[in-house]
Write a structure and sequence with these properties.
This protein has 301 residues and is α/β, with parallel strands linked by helices. The protein is built from 5 helices and 15 strands. The radius of gyration is 21 Å and the shape is elongated.
Length: 301
């Protein structure tokens, strides 16, 4: 099948996050939980349509017995469309390329609305289906059954907006993450150069964090991704993952195995990958001390 982006709701609470099903889950507040690299296929998000596909899902519509007690929030819809646009742009698509053949809701996919008969119709009853899946048939309670069209139009609008060069902040300098001062800290007995942001968090170049611990990695510039060759890392999929709202282009650090789970995300500044030092240490099982902040040995656990 040609590359396709599928838009889902998870039929859960707003805070639900679980790896293995979707590439990215969007919480009720619009926060992105990037779980798997977009370059790999996941096996179970859209029946018989999982190959060459990316699945984005909003954690919502889990109300019982009425799913509309937990509807998609505006923050979720905005984040969903922006992330879909980002994926589309990374594949070389423009606004004119966003049609139902390339971006589909699960309701549309379940009903084979793209004209490809992949399976029996298990989509909305109004489209002749069994009603088993109706993700984004509507965006609001009692809304028109044009959710897919509305989402695609919003994605087109994002893609049509002017883009800054990738080395510049995506937002104004007032909104972007700013490094306030440079410093150094010990990391496994070596001096590590860091930058301190306005919140007091330390950031360092990802390559300079990986090197002292002899963790093998490869940088994929076209995908803005660091592939890590390590068998003893289990990503925590932390709640405070770096978000696009920091204002800089993002990169991801993923495991070079299995379904390529995302370990962490960081920023690209002057074409170099930076990540938060403490987050890196926690994800890779590195012991730390505070006052002063020091990275010790990698002990795991």
């Amino acid at each position: 099948m040609p590359a396709t982006i599928y838009l889902h709701w998870a039929a859960t609470s707003y805070s639900w996050v679980r790896s293995g099903l979707y590439h990215t889950i969007i919480g009720g507040d619009g926060r992105l939980h990037r779980l798997h690299a977009y370059s790999i296929d996941l096996p179970a998000h859209t029946w018989r349509r999982n190959s060459n596909a990316v699945a984005l899902s909003c954690a919502c519509m889990g109300g019982r017995p009425d799913p509309w007690t937990l509807p998609p929030t505006e923050a979720q819809l905005e984040a969903l469309c922006r992330e879909a646009a980002q994926v589309a742009r990374s594949w070389g698509w423009g606004a004119a390329d966003i049609g139902i053949e390339r971006v589909m809701t699960h309701a549309e996919a379940a009903s084979n609305r793209d004209g490809q008969w992949m399976h029996e119709n298990y989509g909305p009853v109004i489209w002749g289906g069994t009603g088993e899946r109706w993700d984004f048939l509507q965006l609001t309670r009692n809304g028109p059954p044009t959710g897919g069209d509305q989402l695609r139009q919003r994605i087109r609008s994002v893609l049509a907006a002017p883009q800054l060069p990738p080395e510049l902040p995506l937002q104004s300098s007032e909104a972007a993450l700013v490094f306030r001062r440079a410093a150094t800290m010990p990391a496994r007995g070596q001096e590590l150069a860091v930058e301190i942001d306005a919140a007091g968090s330390s950031w360092a170049l990802a390559a300079e964090l990986l090197a002292p611990y002899e963790i093998p990695y490869a940088w994929e510039a076209s995908r803005r991704r660091i592939l890590v060759g390590s068998l003893d890392v289990v990503p925590s999929f932390r709640e405070d993952q770096v978000q696009p709202s920091v204002g800089w282009p993002l990169f991801e650090m993923t495991l070079q195995s299995g379904n390529a789970p995302v370990i962490l995300r960081g920023i690209l500044r002057e074409n170099r990958a930076w990540c938060r030092v403490l987050e890196f240490a926690e994800e890779f099982g590195i012991s730390v001390t505070f006052d002063p902040f020091v990275l010790l040995e990698r002990r795991g656990g």
